[in-house]
User: Fold this.
Amino acid sequence: MPEFSPATDPEALELLRRFPLFAGLSREDEVKLAQEVLQKTYPAGARLFEVGEPVHGFYLIRRGAVKVFRISPEGKEQILSVFQPGQSFAEAAVFQGGGYPASAECLADSTLLYVSRDMLLRQIRTDPDFALRVIAGLSMKLRRMVQMVEDLTLRDARGRLCRYLLGLAPEGATSPVVVELPVQQTLISRLLGITQETLSRTVKSLVQEGAIETSRRGKIVIHDMSALEGHSIL
Assistant:
C-alpha cells in the first residue's frame, strides 16, 4: 500500500517551487498549499488510475517514472507519454469532468505529489495569476499532444525516432551531445507506435550513417544533429 504524508519536507517544497503552477507564491501560501498536497510512494507496476475512473486530482513526480497509456480493442498498448521527475500529469482531466481519459502506471518505485481537484479549483478561483499559469501549462501540453498525433500519423519510423532523440537533447545543444534514454527500448517503441524490431533496425541504420552512437548504459551520442533534424522534417 502507498505511504501518505503531507509534502512539507524541504525537498518536496523545493519541487513545488520549481513547478510552474506554484511559481510566484508567497512562502505563507507555499506552506499552506504544501500541507494539502499529499506525498505518496508507490511500487513499480502500481496503477494510479484506470481509464474512465472518476477524476479526483493530478500528480507531480518527485522520484521514479510513470507511463500514461490506452489499450486498443485488440489489446495493443499505446503509450501516450512517459513522465519523469519534475513533470506533472492528469491536470487536464481535472477540468474535463467525467473520468480519466487514459490509464497510468508506475514504471519504477515512485514518489508522487498528489494535488486534489478541490484544492486546484479553489486556488484558481482565488488567484488569477495561478489561473493563468494553469492555462499556460495546459496549452503547452496540448501542443505536445498535437505533435504526438502528427508524429504518429505523418512521420515514418525514422522521423519519429529522430524527433524523439532531438527532444531528449538540451535546448540549443550542438553536436556532439550525449542524451540518456529515460526508459527501456521496449517502452520507447510503444511510445513511438512502432515494433521493437523496427526500432532496432532504425537505430542501427542511424549508427551506420554516423548520425548517432549507442552505449550499453542507456545513452546515445548524437554526432549529427542536422541529420536528425532533416529526417524529422515533414
